[in-house]
Write a structure and sequence with these properties.
Elements lengths: L7 E3 L11 H15 L9 E3 L7 E7 L4 E8 L4 E9 L6 H18 L4
Parallel strand pairs: 1-5
Antiparallel strand pairs: 2-3, 3-4, 4-5
Length: about 120
């Protein structure tokens, strides 16, 4: 990690093999690294998630027999990971959205609040 890279802050979830395949885990790591280095990713690998909050996005990882999502927020000083989950339906489940919102609020309370 270079001194200009933003660190990853994991609030919930992890990227491991299993349950992700080795290829999906490596792809997730490469994409997170690009985000850390300041690259703005778009579709089809990442999309904004304004339903969760400002600067929130989800990585879209297609695995052998599953589709994974990594919900993250881009802060000035870090990339904050709020959730890693297996996508089972077309829409993001309401409980996932609410859990991400709660985790990010708690994180902001601890680090001094953000907008």
């Amino acid at each position: 990690m270079s001194t200009n890279d933003r660190p990853l802050v994991w609030l919930h979830g992890e990227v491991r093999t299993p349950p992700l395949s080795q290829q999906a885990r490596i792809e997730t790591g490469v994409l997170l690294r690009r985000i850390q280095q300041g690259e703005s990713l778009g579709m089809p690998v990442s999309r904004p998630m304004p339903s969760i909050g400002k600067r929130c996005h989800e990585l879209r990882i297609v695995d052998e027999d599953s589709t994974w999502r990594v919900v993250y927020r881009i802060d000035d000083d870090a990339i904050v990971i709020a959730e890693v989950f297996k996508k089972k339906t077309q829409a993001t489940p309401k409980d996932v959205i609410e859990a991400c919102q709660r985790r990010l609020r708690q994180y902001d309370d601890i680090v001094g609040g953000r907008e």
